[in-house]
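Hi L.,

You mentioned the student needs an example of a multi-chain input paired with its predicted structure. This one should do, with 270 residues in total across all chains.
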Amino acid sequence: MGYLRTGELARRAGVNVETLHFYERKGLLPEPPRRASGYREYPAESVRLIRFIKRAQELGFSLNEIHELLALRVRPGVTCAQVRERAERKSAEVRRKIADLKAIERALRKLTASCSGRGPVAICPVLEYLEGDML
Amino acid sequence: MGYLRTGELARRAGVNVETLHFYERKGLLPEPPRRASGYREYPAESVRLIRFIKRAQELGFSLNEIHELLALRVRPGVTCAQVRERAERKSAEVRRKIADLKAIERALRKLTASCSGRGPVAICPVLEYLEGDML
DNA sequence: CTAAGGCCCGTACCTTGGTACGGAGTCAAG
DNA sequence: CTTGACTCCGTACCAAGGTACGGGCCTTAG
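Structure written out for the whole complex:
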């Protein structure tokens, strides 16, 4: 059988069953077909979807934003131009996050380096990257 | 005078006063000196600290994690080795976030590209990056 | 066929990260 | 020396994102 029941999907995706129901109510997870008994039958690829949601959350996207990301598929009723515009906006946002994370990473590396040798250590390297005029 | 009162700090950092008190209670914002009346006197650099906290939140760090980041300053009582180890762990986490964001950005760019010309569009480019074996 | 374990759904509860309120004291311009 | 804006603190409330519970039906190995 190429389908998963709730518990199996939850186990494979590393969340619990209630979370799946919760995502379904929120519209993040499309309602899967049911068997006669009412049991859900998820396609196997749902695992990737759930994991995507979890990763995106760790990257600072809210469930609403993730919804927007997932809605960025070209479908009848939505024009290409609309999709493109939203994609570009999101893309800019993502690039900015990357830049900020790189700055943090640089600061952390500096801290590691300053600690690996002897000699005086920086006072607060983590905040260092803020020296530039960041609004 | 080189100090800020609560309202001024809040205004400059783009948060509101209650948030400052909240951060102080949580230990994220060190308790500033007070004048006789009880009014807080923040050093001007607190603005950067608050902004750092807000940015880090947008990058998916919880207040507790931000606390850990901020605690990564070398101080008496903490050995260099400890600081270094924590910094390295955080650094790995940050690199992973960067990699994930880059994948998302690639997917978004592909989507933009597929939409800019004529021709058939991808079905769900945003999820595409998950094709690789990502756990 | 029957018992253990899944699943259904609804409701209640929880944590995180704030916001709002309100009474009382403080500061500074006029 | 008053008046309006600011500050204090405590308590209450709020939204997001789940988590737990419980009664009742399904399923499947033995």
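You could point out the following to them. Residues 5-7, 17, 21, 37-40 of chain B lie near DNA strand D (CB under 10 Å from a C1'). Residues 80-116 of chain B form the longest helix (37 residues).

Best wishes,
N.
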